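FW: tagging you since you asked about this chain on Friday. Here's the raw sequence from the shared folder, copied in full. Didn't touch anything.
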Amino acid sequence: MSLPAVLLAADSSPSPTPSESPTVSVPSLQDAQESATNAASWVEQNWSTWLAIGLKVLLILVIATVLRVAVRRAITKLIERMNRTTQAADGPTGGTALGSLLVNVERRRQRSQAIGSVLRSVASFIILGTAALMVLSAFQINLAPLLASAGVAGVAIGFGARNLVTDFLSGVFMILEDQYGVGDTIDAGVASGEVIEVGLRVTKLRGDQGEIWYVRNGEVKRIGNLSQGWATAGVDVTVRSDEDLDRLKATLAEVGEKMSKEEPWNEMLWGPIEILGLDSVLLDSMVIHLSARTMPGKSLTVERELRWRVKRALDAAGIRIVGGIPVVLEEEPADPTAGMAAPSAYSNTASPQAQAATPLNAPQGVPK
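HL: got it, structure written out here
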């Protein structure tokens, strides 16, 4: 091909200009109408399914909410009814005069709040958890992997936090069974003192020296509650074995009767001071035991006061109290001269006996 022909072909071909740009296709009215028709048909085909799912979810949520409110109210009424029943049984008409003193309003309130809180939390967890699973199932979500993962996670957490679970369950049963409460004096084995806080995992105790003990509920194997019901005050009186028992009994009975009528001991004493009799009789002493039922936690106070009054009454009556050492019976003082011999007549050189016993001197000129 010759050069003039090439140049001629190049001049005849159109060259693009810088101002030209690619054309943009604008959707036509027919395309928009077709898209709207497709969307409407899709909504028309699926609206019933979505409406059914929405109504089902709404129904599940409404039922769960109503059931949760009803269960919480039922738990609250049940706790209040239990409190009223217990107060009626422990009141003055319950058969004992000391029953009304057993009702600690603050302790009962705290226990009721703890029990109600635990029960309401468990009920809410069960109801809402079941509702959540039903909602996921309504959306046609496969729950098998979720439940399997939750089961594995629960087993792992159970093994890793078994002490925490043990403490929690022990705390729940301690509160439900009312083993102890705030203000009680208890002996938990690992520590003892006054309860200042009861938790689902840890119980706080204040010891005799003011220290605070944190006791895990799962570590407590046995509980000795010194504040529930009543306490017993016991006093032993040891006197000489030759004392008049009738006189001694009358003196002690007078002390007990007088103490039972005075303030504030008439409130601490929940029964008469009883003379239980002789606990032991020895050669030089005998022991009389006194006992009285007292308000919880006041037995030591009553024992100290009773010992004080018994000592003063026995001193006034001339009855001697003996201790742990053997009693030495009093005897008349011995004559210091009783073990001495009578003076001898030979001790005086001027006495006739001494003169008679004097050896004779030999005559002069006679060899000795």
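FW: The mean pLDDT is 76.
HL: agreed, and Residues 200 and 280 are 48 Å apart (CA to CA).
FW: great, closing this out.
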